[in-house]
Amino acid sequence: MKNLHSYLLSSLLVLVFLIVWEIGASLYNKSFILPTPTAIAGELWELKTVLLLNHLPSTLLIILIGLVVSIVMGVTLAVWMNMSKTAEKTFYPLIITSQTIPVIALAPIFVLWFGYTIWSKVVVAILITFFPLTVSTFDGLRSSNKDLKELLLTMGASKKDIFFKLDVPSALPSFFSGLKVAVTMSVIGAAIGEWLGAQAGLGYFSRRMMTQFDGAAVFAPIVLLSAVGIFLFLLVICLEKIILKWREKQ
């Protein structure tokens, strides 16, 4: 009942926001700057074929490749830093430093290096998603119970046994927390990459419509991008519940 009550309150808040937006945009009466939600919904319906068949697949491919590469690289680096103090002291400061550089400033450089191919957008997505995955996994690996580790060692467990039976289960909740952040950030990374230079994609389409002063068409792909981010977030939550059943029981 508590969850249902929370969902109802959230839905009510969104509904109030949309009503205020609809009334405010109608009074403002400049649709090329601030279109109404109904106008955006109508434009999204009219453009559904173009967006879903021509531009959404390009964006999803960027998101998928970026996430897979970030997961593989991030988890590998997190495990290495957990096992080696030298690796931690070498790479951890570099990981932190990488987040101090605005991605929007690097994106044009990636376009210069890789051209208008998919890889210039993938690199942007990787740069945004790599940090939360690596740091959260690393923190999760370090959070394993030291007393349990000593107990396993006294019982003759090998480093491999400790890693898979203690460190990995301890790190999984943190990994999924980082993954929840990464999947939503990957959508932003893909959109930024497409915005600055692409031949297809939801971000590219939104930018193209901006040059035509079509406010509703600018917002339509943004709404679709938001829906993709929400879907991926919910997908990670479902995956987390399936894999971490033991935590739910506890």
TrEMBL record:
Pfam family, one: BPD_transp_1
Transmembrane segments: 7-28, 60-80, 92-116, 122-141, 175-196, 216-239
Residues in ABC transmembrane type-1 domain copies: 56-243
Subcellular location: Cell membrane
Keyword Repeat among UniProt keywords: no
Origin: domain of life: Bacteria
Record membrane topology: Multi-pass membrane protein
InterPro entries recorded: MetI-like, MetI-like_sf
Keywords assigned: Cell membrane, Membrane, Transmembrane, Transmembrane helix, Transport
Keyword field contains Transcription: no
Family as reported in the entry's similarity comment: Belongs to the binding-protein-dependent transport system permease family.
Descriptive protein name: ABC transporter permease
Species classification: Bacteria, Bacillati, Bacillota, Bacilli, Bacillales
